[in-house]
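Good morning C.,

I know you're traveling, so I'll keep this short. The sequence:
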Amino acid sequence: MNKIYKLCVLFLLTFSAINLYAQNSATVTATNFEILNNGANFRFDVHALRTSVAPFEVGFATFVMEYAPGALNNPVLSNQNPRFNGGGSYSPMTSVVFFGQQVALQINYTGGAGEELSNVPGPTGFGERIATITMDILLNVQANMVWDPASSDIVTPTFGQVASTYNGNYNGTLPVELSSFVSSISNNNVTLKWSTSSEFNNRGFDIERKTGSENAVWSKIGFTEGNGTVNEIKNYSFKDQNLSAGNYSYRLKQIDFNGNYEYFELQNEVIIGVPQKFELSQNYPNPFNPNTKINFSIPADSKVSLNIYDMSGKLVASLINNEFKSANYYSVDFNGSNLATGTYFYSLISGSNTDTKKMILIK
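The tokens, ready to paste straight into the viewer:
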């Protein structure tokens, strides 16, 4: 009797091992979620990886993800895996939207021997890419894109079910919708203007700039507060003043309250030319204590002097002493902490050009 019991246990263990070995299984992963084209499109990849020991062929397959109702539409496929896309046992893949809140990627099996799903993780670790899905963003809302396992399935050509695990969700906010972003130039001052047609969870915009020089990097030059969540047009502007001659690029870093962000880049390069005339600007601030800024422009290369005098005409500071300067816009900081309260004059000499202006120090 004991011997029979042991044989039964051995049979059950062997049968279970065979079933475990024979069970077809896979992991399907959505990854590389991206927002593109200044917030107009949303894109992601679908990968699949065989996880069972024994190989199996792919017949019909449907991969379905859910998202916030009405947020996305018009799926377009790219990077379709040629092994499952037309020719042989498959017609071209398709992607459709159901009920305004589900997007499905379909492998369309037509008959015959199917292709085996690879068990090689590849460089992503997620297996082979099935396709890339790009959709139009219709609403700026919390997307909450998640898998719908009940509606997703992989079936072999012999109609065997593949036990599948679904990974990869997107829980971020779909972006602020930027309707325009333009620039205008006045001498060496740039005004940036942009508009949004709607906003969701928008804390604001970092304004970033970089020069046209090689290896230039983006630097933050300002911040403009957003309007949180609105469904109406909002207009914004920012002034970048007293730039040197040269080429500049600008971009906005739109930041949500939860820390998510997206970049919008100005499509045109901004070019500040050399000055057309000699000019000395009024210092700012004025009156000042103790720091102020003096801006000037010279239209031709020359030696330059910039000096500070008191009311008696005595030289009290030399900011630029007969130095050679190229035609350009310049800005000089002056600290009057060692001077007494009073009225002073600053004088600029460039070649044959001279100008003098008054400034007031109040302590």
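Safe travels,
E.
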